[in-house]
Queue: 2 jobs
Job 1
Amino acid sequence: MLKRSIIFIDHANLFHNLVRLKIRINYVAFREVLRNDNYLLGTFVYMGIPEQLLPKKYAFIKYLETQGFVIQAKNIKESPNGKKSQKGIDIFIYRDIVELACEDSFDKAILVSGDSDFIDAIIKLKAMEKEVEIWGFYNSISHRLIKEAGRRNVHFIDGILEDIKY
């Protein structure tokens, strides 16, 4: 039986790893690999958005939207010393995962992130008897996240790069 699944992408985590590897990916192909044999209900992309959106970033967001991705955005904050940072994205993802699980909106959460911030979400999903699948990068995924999700539920983006490169 197909699992009702939702993909939750921590874009900053994905983006910084792709920059480190100096590659770009085809997001549609990436979604298809993650979907696998599941009944995909939606793909949420969580990202920080600056007040002044550059044309390139605007075009990227519009492209994702035309391909059926749902952009979940928070404004990027600037500190008094001029440093820009996104705050609250992980909490935003956590809230959506847990609320949608409580509403029985999915059978399986597919989380693209290696952050240990999601350990509590994994614990809650398991308590609700929801399946969870984690996709991260070898060099940046939390060992505690792997342990909590279970090694068989963790997959590495590094291993599929040839299939999703742009």
Job 2
Amino acid sequence: MDSFLPRVAVTMGDPCGVGPEIIVKAFSSRLFAADCFAFVIGDTLAVERAADLLGSRTAVRQVLSAEEAIAGHRPGTIPVLSAGRLESGDLAWANPSPAACGLTVSCIETAVGLALSGTIDAIATCPVNKEKLHGNGFPFPGHTEFIRDLTRSDEVIMMLAGPKLRVSLVTIHEALADVPRLLTADRLRATIRITAEAMCRDFGFDSPRIAVAGLNPHAGEAGRFGREEIDLIRPVVEEIRSRGRAISGPWPPDTIFHRALSGEFDAVVAMYHDQGLIPVKLAHFSDAVNVSLGLPIVRTSVDHGTAYDIAGTGKAAPDSLIAAVALASAIARNRRKSAVQR
């Protein structure tokens, strides 16, 4: 039996959102991180405030390095590696100060640096508030784009993964009116390729069955409702299938996700954000995980935002973070196994 225990860093995210609360709840869960070494990159004061809010008996322990967090791993504690120092005035619920926004960014930078150096095996990120970060000079559209820049990656694909349904997106945060223009053969080809590679390397499939959704109702119905399926999607699918991939489509979007949930497909490639995320969140609202495919490091994330409306109430559920850490650990194991087999 493999004794490898992946080392997973959990970035705190926005300290004025629900990140610290779900961290405390997750680390206090009996089954959390049972198959890995997990620690937090963030601010001790923010995590201690969340622990006090929740009446948690789980001890918050400041560490000076990732190595100290891993070597001194003890169940029932929350090791926190500081990425900066905040004062109580920086931690107003739903209103992070410039210092809090700066620390949010530093957490990500620190985690990525540790992953690139091989000190840790994976990152699981808590949510950030893009509007607040942008207001404080953050130049990237979001988390994923920042990590892509830090790792100097060419292509990064967003996948939402639940226990039964895995969906990657060709376009992500784009206006619906812009989607047809943004769908290109190169973009679709890259999404399918990276999805297929990740399903093998990260999820452990030998020959993943990938289904591609159409863009239009009924997958265009032979051109009656649009020609994207005929002119763009089908030619790319046939090209990739000719190379031996188990890929099919374009399928009508209103049935493809039911078929995947029933076990017919291992992953679905969706054309745009809501086409893919509505079925994932319907099926796996509490335990879906955002996975960044195509990076040289393992990065998963919770599938929700900072939830300012409930921050500080103790109501936030830790399920997605627990799932994100578990999946990060599993992907790290699969990558290790794949590297050994090569």
